[in-house]
């Protein structure tokens, strides 16, 4: 396995101008006899905002797990910025530029808010054990820069006042927010949000919709969103992919999806329309 | 592992290089900063020598050596407990084979210093005075003991990549027992320098370290100075590790492995690193133990009973709390000495203590905090922001 050539920012732009940033080509996985995901394809352009919806158990989170290296797909290929992600472990995929949040919040409860963000921000740090233990100048600079970046991020999301609190002491809404901040701290090209609106009140959902769009614009990340809250998805997503039983049953703009018979059948059942 | 990240890593290091370059132009306090990095070691060595030279005079007469022995034991126990805490407390892997690493390192160190002395000076007596050649050999032996233990730590760390919780505990428990059984099968100690020099290499297989009878007559080099110097190193390493990115990564593995991976932490590397570092210090502590006056190194030291003593110290101290574990190690080592009459009840007291702790304070004495976190006013200054403040002020254009 050779190392892929380094891509500069300028090259990255031209590369993404012509083709998708995240190119998923008919991936599939089965657990025993259960085909959890079949033939799933997606071309996510740079700074695109796509939604992934479907009834419970449709395989949405499984797709996230495939993308982030938790599972290895049985078939198909995943390319990120023209580079194939193959046989990568989760931390390597994060380093390559795909970050995610979790459906059930998975912060580090006994680390401070700041440390949660710093941990995510340090993945490209290069100082090892020896310079850490001797506290060399280079190491201290790296930590200093890391800390500054973390504070900047927290400020953007208005969490800087809570920086030194334990993550477990934050309110539920703030924990959801911190999950997004933490994922952004890894400096991703693609951000996978797994039900970020779950458990939020209508007011918070509105703010979330706004901030997802702002995140996309400000950090220039492509966003793939799993969400059950239809108004939210319909409002902000450019393209929506609908899954049912591991199969893609529909894809298109929010309007197209809303009027698609198969989608309505998947959500409401097809008994009435058949009869 | 071969595929490592791409563009942004390069960008990141490039911008980093710029920053350091621009900083070095302006930074005049560089020498000062480097010295500051070594400062804790210097302070520790000064304190260790003070302890070494002053303590025997404070407590005169026949009680002196007795108290020195207790203080030495406390030092070794703290090294063991603090290093175990890197695995059990910070990284959240449950290891109950720490005495195995200690005994392995101890035997290695004793082997080197015993046969080294025999070979160099013809007898296994201590040689040279304070900081003399004998002590040099002793320190080198301890470090090799640590290195051997670190190697074993790497091997034991590997199963921790696949095993969790109780299952990992059983592997580490088994490791301690394996060390014990292997040491029982070793050969008789060679106590004649002439025989050693003429005997050739074949007498080293199996290693002549005493078998089940124990390794007697190891030169007794261990003193307060060396114990507390090495204790200083252990504490500085543990503390700096905890406050660093590596420590954060270890704690993240403890908190949530799946999230840690998703945030780019190589959990396999962190776990093995924790085991290797902890085993190294256990091995060095074993070297100190082996050369302590009044100790006959024996295979049963590797058994689970001793391992449990250290686990209890870390549980009692609080997971990841260095000062808490120090406190617990000190208490649990000193207490039995002052309760000599009730020695046979020691294990009962331990068990009761643990049960009471679980009911009253399940997070340990200090929980996840350090002792200075208990004063709220000092808390803001002890936060890591202060550690980088010096480098920030000395190079304003780095911002």
Give a short summary of the structure.
With 275 residues, chain A is α/β, with parallel strands linked by helices. Chain A has twelve helices and ten strands. In chain A, 47% of the residues are buried.
Blueprint (SSEs and pairs):
The complex is a heterodimer of chains A (275) and B (399).
Chain A (H helix, E strand, L loop, with lengths): L8 H10 L3 E10 L2 E11 L4 E5 L6 H8 L7 E6 L2 E2 L5 H7 L1 E3 L12 H9 L7 H6 L2 H20 L15 H14 L4 E5 L7 H18 L2 E5 L3 H7 L2 E6 L2 E6 L1 H5 L2 H8 L2 H4 L1
Parallel strand pairs in A: 3-8, 3-9, 6-7, 7-8
Antiparallel strand pairs in A: 1-2, 1-4, 4-5, 9-10
Helix pairs in contact in A: 4-6, 4-7, 6-7, 8-9
Chain B lengths: L6 H20 L3 H29 L4 H28 L7 H24 L11 H25 L7 H20 L8 H7 L24 H20 L1 H11 L1 H6 L4 H24 L13 H14 L4 H17 L7 H15 L15 H7 L2 H10 L5
Helix pairs in contact in B: 2-3, 2-8, 3-8, 3-11, 3-12, 3-13, 4-5, 4-6, 4-11, 5-11, 8-9, 8-11, 9-11, 12-13
